[in-house]
Amino acid sequence: MNMRELRESLGLTITQVGAATGVSASTVRDWEAGKYEPRYTNIKELMRLFERSFDEIGEAIEQSMHKGGKK
Q1: pLDDT in tens, 4-23
Q2: Across all residues in the chain, what is the average pLDDT?
Q3: Domains in the chain, ordered, with CATH?
Q4: 1-4: Cβ within 8 A, 24+ apart
């Protein structure tokens, strides 16, 4: 499951994720598109918001990065 799928499975909007992690909606879009990886402090907020472990968030980020063409 990538970042977008994880967010959507919880019924959250890009704007809600951005507000909860302290970034803009466009930054969340970039994470989901695999353009950039979230910083560690953002990952901690994503873990809290999504109620997922570090490994689960890392896997979602990896899936998004792979989708975006970066490894």
Answers
A1: 999 999 999 999 999 999 99
A2: 94
A3: 3-67 (1.10.260.40)
A4: 1/59, 1/60, 1/63, 2/32, 2/60, 2/63, 2/64, 2/67, 3/31, 3/32, 3/60, 3/61, 3/63, 3/64, 4/32, 4/64
